[in-house]
Every structure is written in C-alpha cells, then in structure tokens.
Please model this.
Amino acid sequence: MQHILVPVAAGLGDGVLLFLVAGGLTLIFGVMGILNFAHGGYFMLGAFLGYTIAGGRALPAPVELGEITLAALVVGAVGIVSERLVFRQLYKLSPMNSLLGTYSLLLIMEGAAQQVWGPNPLAQQQAPQLAGGFDVAGTRIPTYNVVLVAIGLLTVVFLQWLLWGTAFGRQARAVAEDRAMAGMLGVNAVRVSVIVLFVGTFLAGLGGALAAPMFGVTPDLAATFIIQAFAVVVVGGLGSIWGSLWAALLLGLVDAFAVSFVPSLSQVALYVTMFLVLVLRPRGLLGRPDAI
Model:
C-alpha cells in the first residue's frame, strides 16, 4: 500500500497544478476562441512573483497563502493589460494566427523574466505548517499536496458556478456561441473577454505561485507547463472544465507512477496516455461539440 500512496499523493498534487493552467486555458479558448500559448508565461510569472513577494523565505501558512493570492491577482492584472494590447487584436484572426501571436507573447514573457530574475533556479521555501505531512497506512503524505487537491476542487466548483450559475456565465456562453450576435443583443463582449482573461490568467498565476515551493523557479517553467496543459485540454475535451480536471489528475498520476516504477518511460508516459485516450475517445474524456 505504501508503495502506491506515495505516487498517488505526488500525482494528485502535480495534477492540480496542471489543472489550474489547463482550466484557465479551457475557459479562454471556450469563450474567446483563442489558443492561448502565452498561458504558460502567466504560470511562470506567478511563480516568480510568489518568490519575489515572499523573498524566498518560509512564511507562516496564512501569510504564504496571502502572498500566493496576491501574486495571482497581479498576474490577473497583467492578463487584463494583455487583453487590451494583444488579445483584442486576435479575435478576428484564424486560430493558427492567434496561436502564433500568443506564442510570440510567451517568448517575450520568457525573455523578460530572464532579464529580471536571471536564468538560474530560484528556491522558495514552504511554510513550516505546510512543509510536513501525516501518516496514512505507514506512508508519509505531504500536507502541501492535500492543500493543492483542496484548492483544485474549490477551483472547479467556482468555475462551474461562474459559468452556469451567474448572469455573467450566461453572457460568456452567449459570446462563446456567437460573439457578433451576442453584441447585437446587448452583451458587452469586450467586458466579458476582459473578465474571462482575468480569471484565466489569475488561475495560471495561482498555479505558478503554488508551484514555486515545489520546483526551482526558472523561465523554463513557461514552456514546460504550457505543453502539458495543452495535453490536458486535449485529453479532457476542448471546452470542458470537468474534463480538464479529470485529465489533469489522470496525467499527473500517470507521470508520478512512471517516475516511481518505470523511470525510463517517464518522459513519454504523458503522451502515450494522450494517444490512447484519443484513440478510444476522439473528443477527449468529456469533450462535446459546444464550447463550454
């Protein structure tokens, strides 16, 4: 049992980080129709800001959660600026041109991060209250991983409520269905897009700030996590928030078990799983024809 619980705990924690990136990516694509390759840059920025605000120090848990939230809010504000300067120019372009535009933004963000923080890994310490763990069936389960799983569940509930339980959600679904028609019916499509991009980039920044104590913080985080996030979106099904959650947890677990038991396959396990899922379910786990 203890040999199984260790990769399960690690896989669930990594899966939640993937979901925070992929969930925002799914939301932005579903509503705005843009394949946002720059989303990994917001994740990276959240990690750097989390490190900078905390100064790399181990802070008390409430303070650390506060600085993580602050870092995510700053990233969300950067997302609003990006919508005005970049994304608003991409709405009428083809998906391929949008992808190239957002990829260019990703490269700019990576280069800027390297100029500001340098190329060497930065280490953020965990809060003492979150750095320990507890025993389950003779296995030490990290407390931080349990916190990550709780945050992931709260996030998916929040997104479902936002999209299906609010007036804004109805407007967002209308814009996703037909942006021009929604505008003629009185929906402020620009306002909807700004809020969607804020929420999506906030989640990416939250994921990055949460990841800072787990990984060395470098500009390379941007490319690493956006590739994995796209895999999650494809496996989960384009436009499905719940699909992104299940896919992120699945791929996180697959990677963790591969690292633990078959290290030689750890680099390809994620992509093999993606291939098998798409062979059996071409639309992904919970994919459907409509956007969100």
Notes: The first helix runs from residue 2 to 32. Residues 2-280 form a domain with the ABC transporter involved in vitamin B12 uptake, BtuC fold (CATH 1.10.3470). The chain has one domain: 2-280.
